[in-house]
Amino acid sequence: MTENPPHIPVMVKEVVSLLLTDPSGIYLDGTVGYGGHASELLSRLTGGGFLIGLDRDASALEFTEKFLSEKYCRERFSLYQLNYKDFPKVLHERRDHLLSGVLLDLGISSINIDDADRGFSFQKEGPLDMRFDRSTGISAAEYLKQISATELARVLRDYGEERFHKKIATAIVEKAGKGEMNTTFDLKNAIISVIFGKSQLKSVARVFQAIRIALNDELKALQVVLESILSHLATGGRIAVITFHSLEDRIVKQFFKTNTLTCICPPELPKCVCNVVPRLKIITRKPILPTQDEIKLNSRSRSAKLRVAERI
Ligand SMILES: C[S@@+](CC[C@H](N)C(=O)[O-])C[C@H]1O[C@@H](n2cnc3c(N)ncnc32)[C@H](O)[C@@H]1O
Questions:
Q1: Which protein residue has the closest C-alpha to ligand 1 atom 12?
Q2: pTM (2 d.p.)
Q3: Which atom of ligand 1 is the closest one to the Cα of 60?
Q4: Which residue has the higher pLDDT, 226 or 114?
Q5: What is d(CA 214, CA 108) in angstroms, rounded to the nearest whole number?
Q6: Which residues line ligand 1 (CB under 6 A)?
Q7: What is the DSSP string of 240-276?
Q8: For atom 15 of ligand 1, which residue has the closest CA?
């Protein structure tokens, strides 16, 4: 018997009740991870209901394959190691039927943060890797050897909103140039060598997060999937996105808003000539946040925001 998933899914009830509009529809979980949301969705599917789960992380998929197979008929779901931005590649399996719902629960599973070997945590020493998919691309250690201090400063400013981005970038690139940037503690120590006082650990967290986002090209993947998803979503089908970072939330909010517009003509035009057809209706005017009870049980849920929109 597979043990319980090592990741506690966030706002499960809210996701299921807002996303599932047709129990016999096809659902795409683009970040299936350890299967928490997927399992709840599968438990409510009936008839021809089917779930496609994607993740870049091979170890998460290995667990989820066993976990879901023990609970649900193997004919009801399929899992792929794939970047969610490439989801159209697997839709042929369902004869390219339109999707009834799409879930993106962005970021990282808690078990990956806790596993020193993955290189995401500044609390444990491990190789400086940080890749979601370790079979492709370069590790964070390699990335920091190749990047200039100017470019890294931009990454820390844009993705980490780190005030001391220039100072920290210079310290990191200098160490990397000397071959002294190989572990998570090398990175942490480079940051705390130039940042002092109370904000030290906050800067460390922001820098780790910024490098992870850049290395895995997370914001680009989100933009790409949003751009292409609506043409695969059935009328009445919904998209639910859980974000953990203000930049991700801004991208989702803006995308939803842009697709609800009924006219994009310049205000000085007396009559509409753009013929824009809105493609979405927003279901969550304000993002849904975890309850205090959920945050007490799972402190990592505290920065989560859920937004849902419906294809019209
Ligand atoms: C917060 S976890 C999802 C947890 C999942 N909802 C559950 O219930 O276990 C985010 C997952 O997204 C995956 N991921 C991040 N970026 C991805 C991408 N571009 N394509 C596919 N999976 C991605 C990560 O590997 C991680 O497993």
A1: 31
A2: 0.94
A3: 27
A4: 226
A5: 14
A6: 5, 7, 9, 30-31, 33-37, 54-57, 60, 83-85, 105, 107-109, 132, 221
A7: EEEESSHHHHHHHHHHHHHTT-S--S-TT-SS--S--
A8: 107
CATH for 12-110+218-311 (3.30.300.90, 3.40.50.150, 3.30.450.40, 3.40.50.1000): 3.40.50.150
The topology (CATH level 3) of 133-215 is: DNA polymerase; domain 1 (1.10.150)
Closest ligand 1 atom, residue 33 Cα: 27
CA atoms of 142 and 144, how far apart (whole Å): 5
The proportion of the chain whose per-residue pLDDT surpasses 70, expressed as a percent, equals 99
pLDDT at 262: 87
Q: Are 283 and 21 in contact (CB under 8 A)?
A: no
Q: What is the pLDDT of residues 222-255, one digit of tens each?
A: 999 999 999 999 999 999 999 999 999 999 999 9
pLDDT per residue over 291-310, tens digit each? 999 999 999 899 999 999 99
Backbone angles phi, psi at 234, to 5 degrees: -65, 155
Phi, psi of 248 (to 5 degrees): -65, -45
Compute, in angstroms, the gap from residue 135 CA to the centroid of ligand 1.
16
Domain with CATH 1.10.150.170 in the chain: 133-215
pLDDT of residue 1: 64
Residues of the chain with CATH 3.40.50.150: 12-110+218-311
Q: Closest Cα to atom 13, ligand 1: which residue?
A: 31
Q: Which of 80, 109, 129 has most ligand 1 atoms within 8 Å of its beta carbon, as the pocket-test mutant?
A: 109
Mean pLDDT score of the chain: 94
